[in-house]
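Technical note accompanying the year-one report. For the benefit of new consortium partners, we illustrate the data format agreed upon in the data management plan: each record pairs a sequence with a structure-token string. No post-processing was applied to the example shown here.
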Amino acid sequence: MLEKYKIWRNETNLDQILDEEGMKLLLKMYPAYFGEVTDKKSQPVLQMVLAEWNVRKGILAGHDLRRFVVYIWERISTMAYKQECAHSVALIDVNNYSAREQGCLACISIYVDLVNMFEKYYPNSFEHIIMVNSNN
């Protein structure tokens, strides 16, 4: 398992991903907030508002959203490691998220790929993934 992970990291050049300018630009278009808060165990919390993301538009624009989400995982995992935490927490607001708009076939394939990547390469990275439907 670890050997496959190392091969995947090398093939995808993940050691450089946190320094890529393209990822920082995508972060402005698809906001995610890292470690501004921690949970009661001092684990960093990733905060995202999915309504701020337009996955379909990103796909049509040619944005590499798979790599961008891996960038997010790498960034929060690095924060947890530096804070000597085994896990982090994700808090995802799905208020105003539209499955009709974000559920195109290309979008669904990205979602499936991301779930598979997360399960394969980032198992147990998050202690909790909390999805809420808040009303602002």
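Partners are asked to follow this layout when depositing records. The helical segments are 2-11, 21-29, 55-60, 65-82, 99-102, 105-121.
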